[in-house]
Design goal:
Blueprint: H1 2-14, E1 40-41, E2 44-45, H2 60-84, H3 105-119, E3 124-130, H4 136-146, E4 153-158, H5 169-181, H6 192-195, H7 210-230, E5 233-238, H8 245-257, E6 263-270, H9 277-284, E7 289-292, H10 298-317, H11 328-336
Parallel strand pairs: 3-6, 3-7, 4-5, 5-6
Antiparallel strand pairs: 1-2
Helix pairs in contact: 10-11
């Protein structure tokens, strides 16, 4: 029947005369009512017989199911891209769960909101600050862990605490992993000092050379821009207060020059340490989301201590108690409350 309707429509469009003179075969479908109460719910969308109010007759149900699948394959990507700015999961809101992280539901919700805005095509900058041990790293780790499963390509790095690290060490550590997921293509040669220092692609020109530094920055921004246009990109840099000039400059350049792509740029720093006055002033132009982390409430602190006692008992029962056991409460605070 569906095939005949298609032929009849084509005949009408072409001005042909067409009519049905004989029905040689028919069939009956016994269920003459909707088989499901709704067509879709969240990530599930029904197609074919179960999604139609009218009962299919003969081969109509099969044809409808196949045609619906083909149509949805064309329509759904466009719809999700329009709703969420492209990428996997574009039509669904970002969800960042606290899991064992105590007292950070509000901050994770704000991060998720920033991610949704970024996925819409306008880069978002998030700056997290707080005292030592307050939970900055754990908050960022929670986002880094959960964003990839929601369609994000994530690169994360930490500014080193020790002196003597090469300029831009956090980016040295971060970018090779990104390059595996999103090859730099035409930018590979210029990015060799960051992606593969010391290889034959690295020309050996001193890192401090202004022309080379300019080309390196231009290539990095071009690669990250192209990558973010194909898939939402999150760059997370921890401990900016320890960052050298190159670490900070690359972070600022991403914030200033990649504002029209799906980019989530997150940085953290320790309050009262390092000299970030100039950097924060430059970031202010980008209207960043600012988060100043506070301590846990009394109820959250009690829950943290309860978890610590439970973990000590579990480790003692498994025979793993030892010299490190007295430090367990501090470790629990680091894991659940930092």
């Amino acid at each position: 029947m569906r095939a005949w309707c298609g032929l009849a429509a084509e005949a009408a469009a072409r001005g042909w005369a067409a009519d049905v003179r004989e029905c040689r075969w028919t069939n009956t479908f016994r269920t003459h009512r909707r088989l499901a109460s709704r067509d879709g719910r969240r990530r599930v969308l029904l197609i074919g017989d179960a999604a139609h109010v009218c009962s299919p007759i003969g081969g109509q149900g099969l044809n409808l199911g196949l045609r619906d699948a083909v149509s949805l394959a064309e329509v759904l990507p466009a719809a999700t891209t329009a709703a969420g700015g492209g990428g996997a999961g574009g039509g669904m809101p970002t969800v960042l769960a606290a899991d064992r992280l105590l007292g950070r539901d509000e901050e994770l919700a704000r991060l998720a909101t920033a991610a949704d805005r970024a996925r819409g095509g306008r880069a978002q900058v998030v700056v997290v600050c707080g005292e030592a041990g307050i939970g900055k790293s754990s908050l960022l780790d929670a986002a880094v862990r959960q964003l990839p499963e929601q369609g994000w390509l994530v690169g994360s790095g930490h500014c080193p605490e020790t002196d003597g690290a090469p300029p831009g060490r956090a980016w040295f550590d971060m970018l090779p992993g990104l390059a595996e997921a999103a090859p730099p293509g035409p930018y590979a040669d210029e990015l060799a000092p960051l992606l593969a220092p010391g290889t034959e692609r690295d020309s050996g020109q001193p890192d401090g050379s202004p022309p080379r530094r300019f080309r390196l920055h231009r290539a990095l921004l071009g690669w990250l821009r192209d990558t973010a246009r194909r898939r939402p990109l999150a760059i997370v840099l921890d401990d900016l207060h320890r960052g050298d000039q190159e670490n900070i400059e690359l972070f600022l350049l991403c914030a200033e020059q990649l504002r029209d792509v799906p980019l989530l740029l997150v940085g953290s720093y320790r309050t009262g340490e390092g000299d970030l006055t100039g950097a924060l002033a430059r970031l202010a132009v980008c209207s960043p989301v600012r988060m100043a982390l506070g301590g846990l409430s009394d109820a959250q602190a009690k829950e943290l201590l309860r978890r610590g006692r439970h973990e000590r008992a579990r480790r003692s029962g498994s025979g793993r108690a030892g010299r490190g056991q007295p430090l367990l409460p501090a470790r629990e605070f680091a894991a659940a409350g930092r």
